[in-house]
Structures are given as structure tokens and as C-alpha cells.
Design a protein that fits this description.
It comes from Mycetocola miduiensis. The protein has about 500 residues and is of the alpha/beta class. Among the domains are: about 110 residues; about 180 residues. Helices cover about 35% and strands about 15% of the residues.
């Protein structure tokens, strides 16, 4: 053993402190005219031997932070966002008495929940949600999380059409909360709520059988990029996991991604996780009823849109979670957030106008799947077209779709609530920085005199805005707290 340094004090040679009642103890207290100092009292032994005042059987620290997946914790919280309605008292609106019985039953089953209202014609309607129970409007961006009097829950379920509660409200909420939407017919809403409350009891969905279906029309078509940037990486993650031995990939190359192949795999494999990449149907122009009936329908290798009735004829969604990378797979809005980006007579401009002509709506496919007798748990899709710009960074061609893999593999297969899985995957976090970069680029554009630099700044502003809008308009349909059941380990 090495010798201690000379300055080392060997405490073994010291006695315990000699507390003598005559010894003065100094404090850092000032009485106004002197420092407080005194000898200890004659009864110090009794004080020292008495039980400690501070508890020794519990932690003497702040409580641990809330777990983000624990939506039942009031510091996290779950709540509904409903349209404000005339003819009801504030007390009735606070209790959601205007909602369907199934929705009120859901609220009763989640007693710590909160009901908030979107007031369309309010002075600050895009900034706040109304909280009738606590008598105030809560700022969307800056209210604390939770179900407290001033809070907005971390998990929010919008129940209403995009005309009652606009898509833009969901986009904005999605940047600061975990948000889903249900816009379903009455019987479909009842089906979904019942499945939600029972946790999809007796589901036959198979954890080990994720399915990826990727259409590829040609190497020059965006479907090739979508397969390579979304479908292939996800299947790569699935197939490398020994727990997912039944993973299947209809890759659009060796196996054509037809409607028949999709139906066959869904019916046989009963996957709990489904990923599709394809074009989404917009058209034909001139037939509004047909356009609405197949808005955003996934288009197969033969350029044929899939019908939800055909899918459901031989398969039950039964608690699956579906990511559909396709134009307008979740719905449409009017006007498009990309209105003015393309010439109205161009191919893309015409698509944007066609989609907007149908107004704000949820697409038929997710509505049907979420309304089924054994409904889907959740559907992730787009309210607008997706551009190749936003899937890769043009200067370097780096793919920017890692969020899909992180959501559907790391998050969903990790048992996270789907809203939290999307958040932790980084889907929405870049929206603020991208819009800040747009603002910075526009300031440079306004102050710069060199035309080359002005053009470069304007191009960067365009890229930042388009990419931010693309991310924000990727939405969740279904309750954000749902998660797939994990297998029980033996």
C-alpha cells in the first residue's frame, strides 16, 4: 500500500467532537445588533437521542417527473377537443353533454380527463382552447401540460369534422401536444370508442407479422423514392428483429404491389402494423362525387385505387396501426396550404385545386377502417401531397424520412402510445426551426443587393416552408393513447 502524502490527515488519530456545554457554537444569524452564538444546552444529549424530525422512511426530494406515456397521470393527462356549440350552458359543455353517449361513457371511464372546446369565431380562436370547467381560455402553445385548471392535456383527441375543427388547429396542436382525430359516422364512432375502452379485447392481430406494401411504377417515379426511403428501411428494421419473424415486404419489384396482393397478405397475416407507400388518388376531374368517394385511396401497381369495401370484405382491421405514405391519404383541406406555389394550370397545381374543391374532409379509407366492427387502432397519413423535396435534402440527397422508421418500429413496437411514438420520432420538432430558417432567409432576401444571393435566400425560404408544412400536415387519425399489446415473455 502506498504511503499517504505528507499533507494527509489520518482521521483515525482524532477523537469524536468534544461537545462541552461551555463550548460556544457560532451561527450565521444576525439579530440586528449582534451575531447569534451560544453554548449548547445542558440537555443536548436528549435532543441528540430523540427521533429525527425529518422522515427517514421516504425520499426527501421532489417527486419524480411524470412518465410521458402515462396519460392517466394528471401531470400528463388526456382530454377531448370538441366544437363549441350554441344552445348549451357552460356547465353542460364542460361535461360534454352535447356529445354522443359513447363519448360521454369514454369520458366517465377516464375520470381525470378534460373537455376543451374550439371556438370558431372567437377573437383568438387559433390561439386558445376554451375550458368551460375552469372558466377560461387556455393558450395552445404555452399552457402547462396536464389536467390542472390552467393546463392542456398532453394527449388530445379531436372529435369533429375538419370543417368543425379545421386541420390547421390539429397542425398547431400537434407541435406541442400528442393529437389524434376522429371524424366518424355515429355507428363507427360507437364501434371505435367501445374498442378503445376494452383495449381491442380478443383482437386476432399478429404482433410478429408486420406488412410493408410499396408500389413502384418506375425508377423515375416518386414511388421508387417512397419505397427506398420509407418502405425498405422499415422492412429492414422489421426483418432484422427476431420477434418479427413473419415480416413481409411486397416491394413493388420482385413482387408487384397489387390490390390483390395487399388483400391476400392482410387476410392471411392479420398484421398489427401496416405500412403502405404509393400514389394517392385525386380525380377524375369533373366527377365530384366519385372524387370524394376515392380521395386519397392508395393506388396499386396497375394504377387502380383500392376501395375500402374490397379491403374489408376479407379482413378486419382489428386493432392494427397503419401508416399510409400517399397523397391525401388522411384527407384534404380548402384552400390547400400549398396554394400559390404552383401555376394553377400545371399538373401539381391542378391536383391541389382538385383536392381543395372537395373542401376540408377526412378521406374515406381511414374513416372506413376506424369505423369497422373490429376497427383500426390508428391511421397516420397526409392531408396534402408529399413532394420529393421534403423526403430528401436536395443539396445532399440525404433521406429525411427516419421519422417513419422511428415511429412504426422503435415507437409502436416498443409499446409506446402512438402519439408519443410520433413525437419521439422527431416528426414535428423540425417545423419550428424550418419556419425560423424561412424567416431568416426572407430577411436576407429583403436586405441583400446581390441578385444571386437574393435568389439563393428565396429558394431556401421556399424549401423551409414547404418542408415544415409537409411535416405539420402529416396527421394522426385515432386516439393518441393507443398502443399495440406487447408479447408476454415466458
Amino acid at each position: 500500500m502506498s504511503s499517504p502524502p505528507e499533507s494527509f490527515e489520518d482521521l483515525s488519530t482524532f477523537d469524536a467532537p468534544d461537545v462541552d456545554e461551555a463550548q460556544v457554537v457560532r451561527t450565521d444569524a444576525w439579530t440586528g445588533d449582534r451575531v447569534a452564538e451560544s453554548p449548547v444546552g445542558s440537555g443536548y444529549g436528549g435532543w441528540a437521542a430523540a427521533p429525527a424530525v425529518l422522515p427517514t422512511d421516504g425520499a426527501m426530494f421532489p417527486p419524480p417527473p411524470a412518465s410521458p406515456e402515462d396519460w392517466e397521470d394528471t401531470r400528463v393527462g388526456w382530454g377531448l377537443v370538441l366544437p363549441d356549440r350554441q344552445g348549451w350552458s357552460p356547465e353542460q359543455l364542460a361535461r360534454a353533454e352535447d356529445a354522443r353517449p359513447s363519448v360521454r361513457e369514454l369520458l366517465a371511464s377516464r375520470p381525470a380527463s378534460k373537455v376543451l372546446r374550439y371556438v370558431r369565431d372567437g377573437k383568438f380562436s387559433t390561439w386558445v382552447l376554451r375550458d368551460y370547467a375552469n372558466g377560461g381560455d387556455r393558450p395552445v402553445d404555452t399552457s402547462p401540460p396536464g389536467t390542472g385548471p390552467d393546463g392542456i392535456p398532453a394527449y388530445l383527441l379531436i372529435i369533429g369534422t375538419p370543417q368543425e375543427i379545421p386541420w390547421n388547429v390539429q397542425y398547431q396542436l400537434g407541435l406541442v401536444r400528442r393529437v389524434g382525430r376522429l371524424d366518424l359516422p355515429d355507428d363507427g364512432l360507437d364501434n371505435y370508442v367501445q374498442a378503445l375502452m376494452t383495449g381491442w379485447k380478443d383482437s386476432e392481430g399478429r404482433y410478429e407479422n408486420p406488412l410493408v406494401w410499396s408500389v413502384v411504377h418506375s425508377s423515375d417515379d416518386i414511388t421508387s423514392l417512397m419505397r427506398d426511403a420509407v418502405g425498405a428501411p422499415l422492412h429492414g428494421a422489421f426483418s432484422a428483429d427476431p420477434d418479427l419473424a413473419g415480416a413481409s415486404f411486397i416491394d413493388g419489384g420482385t413482387t408487384p404491389a397489387t390490390r390483390e396482393a395487399l388483400r391476400d397478405h392482410l387476410g392471411r397475416l392479420k398484421p398489427l402494423v401496416i405500412v403502405t407507400t404509393s400514389h394517392g388518388q385525386i380525380g377524375p376531374p369533373g366527377d365530384p362525387e366519385l372524387m370524394r368517394s376515392q380521395l386519397g385511396a392508395i393506388v396499386d401497381a396497375e394504377f387502380t385505387p383500392e376501395r375500402s369495401a374490397d379491403l374489408l370484405a376479407g379482413w378486419k382491421p382489428d386493432g392494427a396501426i397503419w401508416l399510409a405514405q400517399a397523397c391525401c391519404s388522411a384527407g384534404s383541406q380548402s384552400p390547400s396550404i400549398f396554394d400559390g406555389l404552383f401555376e394553377p394550370t400545371s399538373a401539381v397545381g391542378s391536383v391541389l385545386q382538385s383536392a381543395a374543391s372537395m373542401g376540408a374532409m377526412v378521406s374515406p379509407l381511414p374513416r372506413a377502417l376506424l369505423s369497422a366492427s373490429r376497427p383500426l387502432r390508428a391511421f397516420i397519413g397526409h392531408v396534402e401531397p408529399t413532394f420529393d423535396w421534403t423526403m430528401t435534402f436536395p443539396p445532399t440527397r440525404q433521406q429525411l424520412t427516419h421519422w417513419a422508421r422511428e415511429t412504426m418500429y422503435t415507437g409502436v413496437y416498443g409499446g409506446l402510445p402512438i402519439g408519443l411514438a410520433m413525437e419521439m420520432a422527431g416528426l414535428y420538432q423540425p417545423v419550428g426551426p424550418l419556419l425560423l430558417r424561412q424567416s431568416t432567409a426572407l430577411r436576407t432576401y429583403a436586405s441583400e443587393t446581390d441578385e444571386t444571393e437574393r435568389k439563393r435566400s428565396l429558394d431556401l425560404a421556399l424549401y423551409g416552408k414547404v418542408t415544415a408544412y409537409d411535416r405539420a400536415s402529416t396527421v394522426l387519425l385515432g386516439d393518441p393513447t393507443v398502443s399495440i399489446p406487447l408479447p408476454v415473455r415466458g
